[in-house]
């Protein structure tokens, strides 16, 4: 076939998806690329502010903090500190979720239990978990049990509230389907209520994770409770006392990076293969 563009002095149209603009648009549409671009902008602003202030004790630069991070990983057991904090956090997080699931499942089946749960949520959800730490120290002593107590409090009430709200929002049609199939008790909750309320459940899980993470770091920072285990909060607290501000910022950056990884990699992946795939969430 004769090329209609021959002899006109104009090049034929480029194949779709091969131009630089197409590649940039495809990259910009990816969540990880957008997040990385935001992080690069923040790092550049941080570096510029530190150079302008010219006071490393008050605000170390991004490059100095990155160097301190590498040094802390190699010689100051930063990764071990992060692993210790995550280990304690996961224990409290899982226990709180299990308690909330049982409590809310009973509340769905019994009106009195629902009133009890709603009353307890209204009482304890506004109460900061860190405010209970002195009582936890009195009851359980200085150690992991006190941390677990305040973490369970931090996660239990917001997750239970999100779970109960999600269950109550399940359409009556779906409830009738479960009853027509003879589903009762745990099977009714797991097969009907949980899939229908999954967006609310995931939202509650994310909120609970954030509350548990910041409660743990705050407890370690203020009281140094897990100093024997070398938690991240204790790492930040110790380096602050030694006026190693660059390592303090390295510890804070580790807290932030772990939060980003959990949000972008774990929760986003779960949402992509469940509620987004099923058309329950955009």
Based on the model shown, name its key terms.
MetI-like fold; 282 residues; flat; disordered N terminus; 75% helix; single chain
Task: Report on this structure.
The protein has 282 residues and is an all-alpha fold. It has two domains: 20-53; 62-273, MetI-like fold (Orthogonal Bundle), CATH 1.10.3720. The protein contains twelve helices and no strands. The chain has helices at residues 20-28, 31-53, 62-75, 78-109, 111-124, 133-140, 144-168, 172-180, 185-196, 198-223, 232-241, 245-273. α3 packs across α12. It is flat.
Quick synopsis:
This protein has 282 residues and is mainly alpha-helical. 75% of the residues lie in helices and 0% in strands. The longest helix is centred in the first third of the chain and has 32 residues, at 78-109.
Mean pLDDT: 80
Outline: flat
Number of domains: 2
Helix content: over 70%
**End-to-end distance:** 46 Å
Tally the beta strands: 0
Give the H and E element order.
HHHHHHHHHHHH
Query: What value does the Rg take, in angstroms?
Result: 25 Å
CATH fold call of the largest domain: MetI-like fold
CATH architecture grouping of the largest domain? Orthogonal Bundle
CATH class group of the largest domain: Mainly Alpha
Uncertain stretches: 1-17
List the helices and strands and how they pair.
Layout: H1 20-28, H2 31-53, H3 62-75, H4 78-109, H5 111-124, H6 133-140, H7 144-168, H8 172-180, H9 185-196, H10 198-223, H11 232-241, H12 245-273
